[in-house]
Amino acid sequence: MGAILDIEGESLMAADISTWPQSKTRRIESRRLELALGVAELRMPPSVPSRPSKNTPGVDYKRFPGWLFCQDCRRMNRMTRRQETGKPPRCEHCKGPMVPMRFIVVGTERGHAMDVPWVRWAHSEASGESQERCRTEELLFQTRPGGAEGLSSLVVHCAACGASRDLGALTAKGSLKRIGFRCTGAQPWQSPKLDTCDERVEVLQRGATNVTISETSTALDIPEPTNPVKDDAAEIRRHRNFEDVRSAPSGPRAAVLIELIAEDLGVTQQEVLRVATAATDDTDEVKAAREGLLADEWLAFQQAIDNPDEPVGTPNFVVSVTPFVPDDATPAASAIDDLVGHIVLAHRLREVRALHGFRRYDGGSDLVDVDLGPRGRERWLPAVESFGEGVLLTLDEHRLAAWELNEHVKVRVEDIERRRRDSVVGSRLGVATPRRVLLHTLAHVLMRQLAFSCGYSAASLRERIYSSSAPNAQAGILIYTAAGDAEGTLGGLVRQGEAPRLMQSLFAALEATAWCSSDPLCSESRGQGPSALNLAACHGCALVAETSCEGSNLLLDRVLLIGRGETPGFFQSVIRDVQQDAARRARL
After folding, report:
1. Does residue 147 or residue 141 have the better pLDDT?
2. What is the pLDDT of residue 437?
């Protein structure tokens, strides 16, 4: 939703859920996720058969960008809905294939998206009065002869008046402002609202990763707590009138709606007003929901750890505790066993992933809601469910708490946290603590190693980081895979979690992490990645596929694993023992 889909040479964008045929969607049951996000329901998009007909329900798509050009005669044409035939577009002049233009325009604050004003761009360097007045759409997209390189070699030419301009300055910051173009105030599937938006607009390639930055929340299907606690704030957020109160808590209708919500839910009006005014920041609200979901999951795994001989779980949450090291442990195995807490095998998991919005251009822009239609109905979100398996590895809390107190460790992570607070994407990430950065880096290096042996592709593995200090201490990582078919339940990941395979995989991951192909540049780095939010972490040692990481490949530092200089690594002694064992075996 809001993202560009390239399929068979055509470029499309899905509309928001207000256009979906809700009666044709299927509800996904996930009470915890619904309460956390304050929605009434989660629903899957309408399913489409392999041979759809005109009456088949589906998601509404808009051709975007609307400007196309012919690959044969180079004529440009702005497609309208009346010109759509349901078949790949053809040039009206030569019947050649039409393909979408490479560039689009996005708003940097409110996330609107629109076509590049090609007519205005072609006439923006007019050489005479006739060219200045011309606004015809008879454009040609040509290549300039003479050996010019890059975008400067591409020219938009007006066939009517002869005006033209190359694309050399098109992607420069503020290029459209200089020619007087304003934001349309709408998404591609909406009608333009030229008098409502003054945000800055910039030109991006339609395939750029920052065209759509999705905001999702996921939850595992875990057993309901024995004594569920009523969450008044979540119930208030789910009420059908909450969005109206939230948008204008001091408006003329707010008092009546607040009284109605309070009466329906049996809470005070002060509580309703508090939730409405505290929910003004979408990022903070979503972050709080995610932390609550992770805390519940950690308790579910902890229940299995505390009761290893009792049946724990549901048909979609089948877990068991397993030993980490074999009985005939080597000195290196005993050393790592002292640092690792427990291993829990998740033989079957059900994951529900809900989309509640997206951003454009960068992570600091406003969240575009998935439902842009009129308010007044019960709020729901689009979601998908998938099934899989996984392995939970926890660290020893006492060893971890002692390591966190080291001054060199704290100083190193404080640098990351300071940059996180100053970064435009920092609000989307958790607070950088030694525990979180350590666990996040450990999850990455272990995923990279397990991809060689578990039978799943590296991009199909995912992580969940359970990290918090007292009073509700969490210190674990869940490496899992989830797919909509049998891909996620083949058993390979659980098998690798059994002793001694997981121990051997962790040994191999730590040994590989001790030396990066980019060292010493990587290990001595004072900042890598966006906003320098990584220290010793690069593509050669710690980064994974974006789909695998819940933190955008940020807040990573392998020095916290292996140690360097005065900074002790949590597994530094283990790596030393492994290297000594290897050297001793080599001498024999």
Report:
1. 141
2. 97
Distance CA 152, CA 168 (A): 4
Q: For residues 249 and 268, give the distance between their C-alpha atoms in angstroms, rounded to a whole number.
A: 15
DSSP string of 110-163, one letter each residue: S--EEE--HHHHHTTT-SSHHHHH-----EEEEE-SSS--GGGGEEEEETTT--
Please report, for the chain, how many H helices and E strands are present, in that order. 16, 21
Cis, bond preceding 49 (omega within 30 deg of 0): no
What the block records as the tokens of 299 is 């308790």
Sign of CA dihedral 245, 246, 247, 252: positive
Q: Is residue 131 a contact partner of residue 157, using CB atoms and an 8 Å limit?
A: no
What is the DSSP secondary structure assignment for residue 426, as one 8-state letter?
G
How much of the chain exceeds pLDDT 70, in percent?
A: 92
Per residue in 236-290, pLDDT (tens digit) is 776 777 777 777 777 778 888 888 888 888 888 888 887 777 654 556 666 667 7
User: Is the peptide bond between 65 and the residue preceding it cis, with omega within 30 degrees of 0?
Assistant: yes
Which pLDDT score is estimated for 487?
52
CB atoms within 10 A of CB 229: 6
pLDDT tens, position by position, 230-246? 556 767 776 777 777 77
Using CA atoms, how far apart are residues 302 and 296, in angstroms rounded to an integer?
A: 10
Annotate 422-451 with b (16+ C-beta within 10 A) or e (fewer).
ebebbebbbebbbbbbbbbbbbbbbbbbbb
Task: Please give the structure tokens belonging to residue 52.
Answer: 């759809």
Please say whether the beta carbons of 216 and 286 come within 8 A: no
**Which contiguous run of DSSP H or E holds residue 294?**
helix 282-306
Residues in the chain: 588
Q: How far is CA 8 from the centre of its chain?
A: 25
Token representation of residue 572: 């530094």
Which of the 8 DSSP states describes residue 435? Answer: H
The C-alpha torsion from 181 through 183 and 186 to 191, rounded to 10°, is -30
Residue type, 63: R
Where residue 229 falls among pLDDT bands split at 50, 70, 90? very low
Say how far apart CA 446 and CA 505 lie, in whole Å: 7
Q: Which residue has the higher pLDDT, 381 or 378?
A: 381
Average pLDDT over residues 75-92: 88
Indicate if the pLDDT at residue 447 is higher than 70. Answer: yes
| Better-predicted residue by pLDDT, 488 or 84 | 84
Cα(466)–Cα(420) distance, rounded to whole angstroms? 19
Decide the pairing of beta strands 380-395 and 41-44: parallel
Nearest to 33 by CA among 206, 209, 309, 217: 217
Please answer whether residues 391 and 343 qualify as being in contact, where contact means their C-beta atoms are separated by less than 8 angstroms.
yes
CB burial class (10 A; 0-12, 13-18, 19+) of residue 374?
exposed
For 495-506, what is the mean pLDDT?
93
Listing DSSP states for 318-374 in one string gives: EEEEE-SS-SS--HHHHHHHHHEEEEEEEEEEEEEEEEEEEE-SSTTSPPBPS--S-
d(CA 115, CA 76): 13
